[in-house]
Design brief:
With 226 residues, the protein is mostly helical. It contains ten helices and no strands. Helix 3 packs antiparallel against helix 4, helix 4 packs across helix 6 and helix 4 packs parallel to helix 7. It starts with a helix and ends in a 15-residue tail after the last helix.
Amino acid sequence: MSGDERELHLAWLRHVGIGADAEHWFDTVMGAHRAEGRHYHTARHVRWVVQHVRTLAPAADVADADLDIVVAAAFFHDVVYDPTASDNETASAAMARRALTDLGWPPEPTERAATMIEATANHGADCVDRATCVMLAADLGVLAAEPGAYSDYVRNVRKEYGHLDDASWRAGRTAFVRSMLERASIFPASLRLEQWEKRARANFTAELAAMQPLSGGDGESDGPEP
């Protein structure tokens, strides 16, 4: 078990479940994140998201019971990840429903966790309550990383989109970056993450400037994304 997985195991025991069934599902989730072809969407990404959730939740007044739901959503939100597919979030939510039901979670919190996972498809646009806002912001936290870590993220996502040639990657990525910069707020506005907002916009602007001389066009808005 890697260092990332050991830390995640402690969070799993605290927030998701304990016992043989819980261990089975933890191993299933970690196994999915070790799959060949994953370079950014790995256990390390899950660890960062869980850390961000636990940092952001107190300031957002997220209740302890809701924190369990958000952490569960963080664990499962990318458990299904295929860069060539368009239903990853739906499939990940379906697995979360099966797992949490197996672990004895009641229907209401199970469905809330699944709904949070489905909301990540819109990159933070579906912020229906403060707990969901925390989950969506945490998932996008890498956008506000220091420039070196942000560059690592972009490089690793590019590896995951290895099926695309360079021109297709640049077109899709450019369209995604522009769409994010056009938003009034990259992160849920209710969380007031001004420093994150500033750093994310600086990272996007620098990335766009670096791609601009090579970009062959605007591309499509459903191109490479985090």
